[in-house]
Specification:
Layout: E1 9-13, H1 18-28, E2 32-37, E3 53-55, E4 61-65, H2 66-69, E5 76-79, H3 85-95, E6 100-103, H4 117-123, E7 128-133, H5 148-154, H6 175-198, E8 202-207, H7 208-214, H8 217-226, E9 243-247, E10 252-256, H9 260-270, H10 273-277, H11 284-289, H12 291-303, H13 307-316, E11 321-323, H14 327-331, H15 334-338, E12 342-346, E13 354-358, H16 382-386
Parallel strand pairs: 1-2, 1-6, 2-5, 6-7, 7-8
Antiparallel strand pairs: 3-4, 9-10, 10-11, 12-13
Helix pairs in contact: 1-6, 6-7
């Protein structure tokens, strides 16, 4: 089977995480991705973001950090310095055979090289040109640099993440970058659909902050509806109670009571049937108002039970419940194995001959994702890709 995007060619001028997340996804779906890396800096910044690093057969550190490998499989690495005339001509020659160009320079940063969207689209009207930046191509903050942490702060997610009396807290991974890459992928696919119908390419402008604001979802719309700032609730839910993480005698457990009938069964399991008939807790709106009192009433009973006892008991009465797993537990789980969420790729140049990566979550019945190329070493495909090109003199 061929991938859904087989036959498409992507010129990737991005680095770090948002752009590479997008291009890896396009590559997994079958597109050929040519990753341009700057020879004067040793390539993508994340190549040096470690440890951990993959080691070669002699036990020496390679330029494959775990961070870099997380977003750079299914790509060819080509070393080109776009600050030089020769490099710019190479990019122009490459883009003539590409369907998509993705970049994450500061807005306007490629204009001085003649590689900006306006110039490229004039020369190649069918090109899909995607720009990823911190704040977008317009607006008063357009010239500011974009980093995931800054986007999480500016976009508001940090203000509602963390314990009520604690400091604002970022999400544990660069989720603003990752979600921006996802939105960029959707925008590119929509632009390709338009090009398929009309032959017309376009500029896709995606910003980390815009993406992060978009996935404020219910909390964002609640603010727009009331004008009030949401507060940090730790693991609590703003609109459902009890829906949080609770201590047990040997750890923690997640309980997500979604309706009143589930609450009745939850209380019966704890031996606290009176709570479900108490006017303070009988309905979800009432439980939200009396959140702290309910937590105080149920926490001791949960704390006297093991995590396994709570999970098994609540699953038996169909109340949503689950464990808080470590990453070791996640990647050793039968569910992750069954869904092919760990991928092994052969690499004869590393000590154990294998690279272990996180799988793609998309399961397509007719055009499945594929893992054709391991994350590349810096510049390894330069000669192969540039062979046959005749840059203009």
């Amino acid at each position: 089977m061929t991938g859904a995007l087989d036959g498409l060619r992507v010129l990737d001028l991005s680095r770090i995480l948002a752009g590479p997340t997008c291009t890896q996804l396009l590559g997994d779906l079958g597109a050929e991705v040519i990753k341009i890396e700057n020879p004067s800096t040793g390539g993508d910044d994340t190549r040096s973001w470690g440890p951990p690093f993959v080691t070669d057969l002699d036990g020496q550190r390679t330029d494959l950090s775990a961070y870099f490998m997380s977003a750079n499989r299914n790509k060819l690495s080509v070393a080109v310095d776009i600050a030089t005339d020769e490099g710019q001509e190479i990019i122009r020659a490459l883009v003539a055979d590409c369907d998509i160009l993705i970049e994450n320079f500061k807005p306007g940063g490629l204009a001085k090289y003649g590689l900006d969207a306006q110039t490229m689209l004039k020369d190649h009207p069918g090109l899909i040109y995607c720009s990823i930046s911190g704040y977008g191509q317009t607006g008063p903050n357009a010239s500011k640099p974009g980093y995931d942490l800054m986007a999480q702060g500016y976009g508001g997610i940090m203000s509602i993440t963390g314990e009520p009396d604690g400091a604002p807290m970022k999400v544990g991974v660069g989720v603003a970058d990752v979600m921006c890459g996802m939105y960029a992928t959707v925008g590119i696919l929509a632009a390709l659909r338009h090009r398929d119908k009309t032959g017309e390419g376009q500029h896709v402008d995606v910003a980390l902050v815009d993406s992060q604001v978009a996935w404020l979802i219910n909390e964002g719309v609640s603010h727009l509806a009331t004008g009030q700032n949401p507060v940090r609730r730790g693991n609590g839910h703003p609109n459902i109670v009890p829906y949080s993480v609770f201590g047990t005698s040997d750890g923690h457990v997640i309980i997500a009571v979604g309706n009143d009938s589930q609450f009745e069964r939850f209380c019966a399991f704890l031996g606290l049937d009176d709570l479900s008939s108490d006017a303070r807790f009988a309905t979800n709106p009432a439980r939200i108002v009396n959140r702290d009192a309910l937590t105080d009433a149920i926490a001791p009973s949960l704390a006297n039970r093991t995590t396994q006892e709570v999970v098994v008991g609540l699953e038996a009465v169909k109340v949503p419940v689950g464990p808080v797993q470590t990453l070791q537990e996640v990647f050793k789980s039968d569910q992750v194995a069954a869904r092919d969420m760990v991928v092994e790729m052969d690499d004869d140049s590393v000590q154990d001959g294998k690279l272990r990566l996180i799988g793609n979550p998309l399961k397509l019945s007719r055009t499945p994702v594929s893992y054709r190329r391991k994350p590349p070493n810096f510049g390894q495909d330069t000669d192969a890709v540039l062979k046959g090109l005749s840059p203009k003199k």
